[in-house]
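User: Run a structure prediction on this.
Assistant: Running it now.
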Amino acid sequence: MNRFYSPMLNPNYEGVNIDDLVVATYLIGTSKDEDPIIKASSIGIEQTTGSWIDVPAETDEVRAKYASKIIGIYEVPDYENQFNVNQNVPDDGTRFYVVRIGFPVANIDDNIPLLFATILGNVTAMPNLRILDIDFPKSFACKFQGPKFGIQGIRDILGVKERPLLNNMIKPCTGYTPDVGAKLFYEAAVGGVDIIKDDELIGGSRVFNNLEERVEKNMAAAAKADKIKGEKTLYAVNITDEISRLKDNAMKAINAGANCLMVDTFGIGLSALRYLAEDTKINVPILSHCCFGASWTVSPYQGVSSTVLTKLTRMCGADTLLIELPYGKFDIVPFKYRKSITTCTGKLYDIKPTLPFVGGGVIPGIIPKILDDAGYDILLGVGAGIHGHKMGPQAGAKAFRYIIDACMNNIPLKEAAKDHEELRVSLETWGMYGKENLKDNYAI
C-alpha cells in the first residue's frame, strides 16, 4: 500500500483522540486528475515528520505519535461519479477540496511561532492553499490566559452596564503635538465618548509627540471632561514599537497615568501581544488594532481567514479588537464581519470574550444597522465622524450618544434628529443606511 493511503495517516475522525490534535481546515485546489489524498497527506507530512522522500528515522512509531492525521477531505461540489467530473471540469480546470488536518499538540504545545511554522509553514507558498479555520483542543487553549478584562471587565471600569460603548480615534492620525491632541481629546471626551485611542499610525514616542507627555496631557483632559459629564473615559495609548521597547513603553504609559493600552497586533506579532497581556504588572485593558492583518486575509485562495486571526488575537489577550465594517470605507464581506464578532464573543473554553470594536467610516446613520447585526456588546469606533462634524468634535460625539440612546429606546433616527441639532447635522451631512449610498462619503 502507498504509505500516503495508510489509515495511520488517514484515520477516521472517530479513530483519533481529538484533544491531542490542533485541527486546521484548509481550502486546497488541485489539477483535474490530481489525487487529493496524496496532496493532503503530502502537505501534512511536510509540516510534521517527513519530507518529499522517506527518510530512515521516520519510523511508523514516529509517525503514529507525531505525524499529521488527515481526518477529512471534502470536494466542493462533492463529485461521486467520474462522468460528472469530466462533464463539469475542463482538462485545465481546478478542483477544490476542504481538507481537515490534525497536528499533534505535542508538536506545537505552548508556542505561537511554532503554530504558524506548522500549520502555515512552507506549504503556504503553494498556489490555491488557504487556511479557513483552526480548531484548538482544550489541552492547547488552556495554556492561554486570554483577555484580562474582556467585555465585562471594560464595562465594570466604565460603569456602563448595557448600552453600546463609544470610541473615538484622535484625528489627524499623526503629525500633531501633545497639546493639539489633548484639545481634541477633551472635546470628544466631554461630548460623551467612553474610550479614546491614538491612531494606529502614532505608536510609541515620535519626535513631534513624546509618549509620556501625550499620556499626561490626555489623561488631564480626561479628568477634566469626566467631572463635567459624570462618566469615566479610558485612553488607549498606542505603545506600538520594536519588541525590545514594548514593555518599557507600556510601563512608561501606565506610570504616566494611562488606563488602557493599544498595540498594532500584526506589526508587533501575536506573541508580543500575549507577552503584554499575560504580564501581571500590566493591569489595564489592551486594545488590539488589526492593521496589516488584511494582507494575510484578502486573497480568497491564499493566506489565512480572518476567523483564524480573530480567534488567535482573543486567545493572546486582546480585551477589545478592531473589526473592519462592511458598510463604511471598506468592502468586507458581511458574513466575515459577523463571523469575527461571534468569534470574539462566543464561548471559547474558559477564555473571556473580547469586546468587538467595529470601525472604518462609522457615521450616526449607520448605527442602527450595526446594532441590528451585532447587538449592544459592541464598541463603536468613530474617527472623522466626530472630528469632522460641522459643529466640532464635541457636537460630533453628542450626535453618537443621541443615536445610541435612540436605538436603546426604539426611537427612529429621524424622530431623534428633530430634538437634537447635532444629530440632524450628521444625518444631513453623511446620510442614513438604506436611504443614501454611504460609500459616496469615502475617498478610498
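The longest helix spans residues 211-229.
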